[in-house]
Specification:
The protein is an alpha/beta fold. It has a single domain (about 5-120), classed as Transcription Regulator spoIIAA. The chain contains five helices and five strands. The termini are far apart.
């Protein structure tokens, strides 16, 4: 079940998808459009395993579709193993975290810390 919470004035949809199949980015976007969050968070454990292999194109597909549909995505969990295994993935994570659309963070507390430094959407 997806959960909508307020974190420092930002509406965050904790997205879990459906238990009976692999998550798809369009499912995430559809659920986000129904709740109108400022951010959507998803656990690394809920993503398809090949998301972390850039050659598959899945991470690129998720990022591009989220940008196209205006969904800000926070991927929560430890990605250090994937970053250590692939310089390209490490670069992808570093660049994403510099931006305003896709973040890779350790947990919900780290997301809260980052959002605390940003004005809520209504004030922008």
């Amino acid at each position: 079940m997806n959960t909508l919470t307020d974190i420092h004035g930002h509406r965050v949809l904790e997205w879990h998808g459906e238990d009976n199949r692999a998550p798809r980015v369009l499912d995430l976007i559809g659920d986000a459009s129904a709740h109108n969050p400022d951010w959507v968070s998803i656990s690394t454990s809920a993503l398809p395993a090949d998301f972390f292999e850039l050659r598959t194109g899945i991470a690129g597909e998720w990022s591009q579709k989220c940008v196209n549909y205006g969904v800000r995505l926070a991927i929560l969990g430890d990605v250090s193993r994937h970053a250590a295994a692939s310089k390209a993935f490490a670069d992808f994570v570093r660049e994403a975290n510099r931006g305003d659309q896709l973040w890779f963070l350790d947990d919900m507390a780290a997301l809260g810390e980052r959002l605390a430094r940003r004005p809520p959407k209504a004030e922008r």
